[in-house]
Amino acid sequence: MYIHQLRNWPQFQWDNDVITSLLAEVRHRQGRLLGRMEGLGFHLQEEATLQTLTLDVLKSSEIEGEVLNPDQVRSSIARRLGMDIAGLVPADRNVEGVVEMMLDATQRYSATLTQDRLFGWHAALFPTGHSGIHKIVVGGWRNNVKEDPMQVVSGPMGRETVHFQAPDSDRLQHEINAFLKWLNSPEKIDPVLKAAIAHLWFVTIHPFDDGNGRIARALADMLLARADESNKRFYSMSMQIRAERKTYYDILEETQKGTLNITEWLQWFLACLNRAIAATDNTLAAVMRKAKFRERPATQTINDRQKLMLNKLLDGFEGKLISSKWAKITKVSQDTAVRDIQDLIERGLLIREDAGGRSTSYILKEE
Fold first, then answer.
1. How far apart are CA 217 and CA 238, in angstroms?
2. Which residues are annotated as a binding site?
3. Domain boundaries defined on the chain
4. Topology of 3-285 in CATH?
């Protein structure tokens, strides 16, 4: 029996004595982080938000086994937020769709969540009306028959493990109506707890043919933005869930097969959120490093190609940077690439790497 089949569904309960101290710790950590960010100034906040939203989109898709192009995600977010950054690249339609959903959730966090808004998110995720090779219902709830229930499964075909079974499709409109009425009601509980419950509740209903997990995480992000009372995002819950993906699926499955006492789910969610906020130290360190580098006088008059490549190095360039890679990425001749690199060396921004080999490679010169 699954929780949505229980007589008192969806009257969730939890142990306040257990949850209160965890929630207080999370709220304290959130407050400290937001206080630190307010002291950094607008441009650093903007950079941190771009970094965090990029991670959110990438990691939420990775949880579902979909790997997106980081440059496309970053470019799509920057364009939509009106940010002026070097090296913007065109983004595929599926990237634009995930970004559109995430930004609508986090930038319009105080807007009422409606059925049409959910349909819009789903349509953005699946612009072609297909999930892989399968045609799906877009702009409406799934309509599977009772003989073919919506099951969340894993494992090879023929030997799948059923993690849980969602409500039959003839119940969906009633279930969604109850969910939206609760979510849009004035806050009776802390919005961080509301984020945890909304995530679980939406996953349980599983109203769409596909994309339910990503939409559930977008809903959680929307409610966490409400908790912060800010559309600037400085921590990524999806990045932390991706790091703990097995535990995430295990606790969801256990909760689906348990009772309406969801204390253990809330404990895990709050602890995961706490770890997500703690992990921002790495994000902020990278943002500060980039800001410090860009403030150097020698960076003020460099060309767009050089800005692009320095940004890639600051973001963590994959592999060795050699002149042929520079030429390929910036779409210039080898001679132009060498001149660009030599200019940055003379400015004290790049140095040749000591490591030997046939091709000379280059790294940032830190102050």
1. 7
2. 210-217, 248-249
3. 3-285, 303-364
4. Fic-like fold (1.10.3290)
- Mean predicted confidence (pLDDT) in 175-190: 94
Tokens of 40: 């950094």
Please confirm, yes or no, whether 206 is among the known catalytic residues. Answer: yes
Torsion of CA 239, 241, 243, 249, to 10 degrees: -150
Cα–Cα distance measured from residue 65 to residue 366, given in angstroms and rounded to the nearest whole number? 36
Non-local CB neighbours of 246 within 8 Å, separated by 6+ positions: none
Fold of 303-364: Arc Repressor Mutant, subunit A (1.10.10)
Q: Which residues are annotated as a binding site for ATP?
A: 210-217, 248-249
Question: Residue 87 is encoded by which pair of tokens?
Answer: 């090296």
Asked whether the beta carbons of 249 and 235 are under 8 A apart, the reply is: no
132, two tokens: 């892989």
Q: Could you report the per-residue pLDDT of 75-126, keeping only the tens digit for each?
A: 999 999 998 776 788 999 999 999 999 999 999 999 999 999 999 999 999 9
Identify the three-state secondary structure at position 189: coil
User: Exactly one of 4, 122, 199, 206 is catalytic; which is it?
Assistant: 206
